[in-house]
Amino acid sequence: MLVGLRSRKHIAPFELVRPASIDEACQALSAPGRSAVMAGGLDLIDRLKHGEAIDRVIHLAGVRELSGVRRDGDAISIGALTTHAEIIGDSMLAGLLPDFPAIWRGIANPRVRHTGTLGGNLMSALPHYDAGPALLALGASAVVVNVSSASESLELAGLRRRSDIILERIRVPVAFPLRLLADRSLHPIISLYLGAEIEARAIRSARIAVGCAYAHPVVAELPLAGVPISALGSEAAAVARNVAAALAEPLSDGLASGSYRRRMIEVLTRRLLIKLGSQP
Prior knowledge:
- The protein is about 30% helix and about 25% strand.
- By secondary structure, the chain is of the alpha+beta class.
- Strand 9 and strand 10 (about 190-200) form a beta hairpin.
- Helix 9 packs antiparallel against helix 10 (about 260-280).
- The longest helix has 21 residues, at about 260-280.
- The protein starts with 14 loop residues before the first strand and ends with a helix.
- The relative contact order is 0.11.
- The model has no long low-confidence stretch (mean pLDDT about 95).
């Protein structure tokens, strides 16, 4: 429970565990009491300063296999401890998925980009964070290790329902050329990501993912399979209108109403489809 103002004085004593392997991390996670897994630590330290009490912090910095980007069959695997700055500078991502590091250059500030990790951003599951909607738009999945040290593959939405796992890596399929477009102009009211697989200058699959407008990012498939990229401009308005109408009611809060957010989902979806259709 968060109490009072943010201060180091609110940090309660806890056990610090520094595992050197995933197995050691899972063993610590299975111990009695309340554990918190720490990657870059930006969100966890903030929670502790607000008074959240835990029994142990499992600091993953020494688990080297959780870092880095590599080719993984028809996918790219991004380790959970890979920092935002490493994503921006990775040559493999630049070659196979250039939109992702290009967009990530505008995320947060230099201090956060060099400390914060992709896995930490995703597992924190804060509505205004970008890893969730970006990875959902890319059709990514998660590889996790549970407290029994068994590996599992999960959909991203399944991560927030599990407290017995260590996120190992994210897998982004790259069997087909993959585009990622984003509109963050209304962040933190709404952010919208469009991901599309391209085959022979036509859409193979496409989806939007919406951040900020719901408690958790929402993804919707777009009925565009087989549509030539050059025809997206003429399809954009109808597709955007229909997908926005079909989504659940967005949040109404001090920033914006649900009806405004729904309208902006339609507007931003239309913009990104037109932008995708206009690119060579």
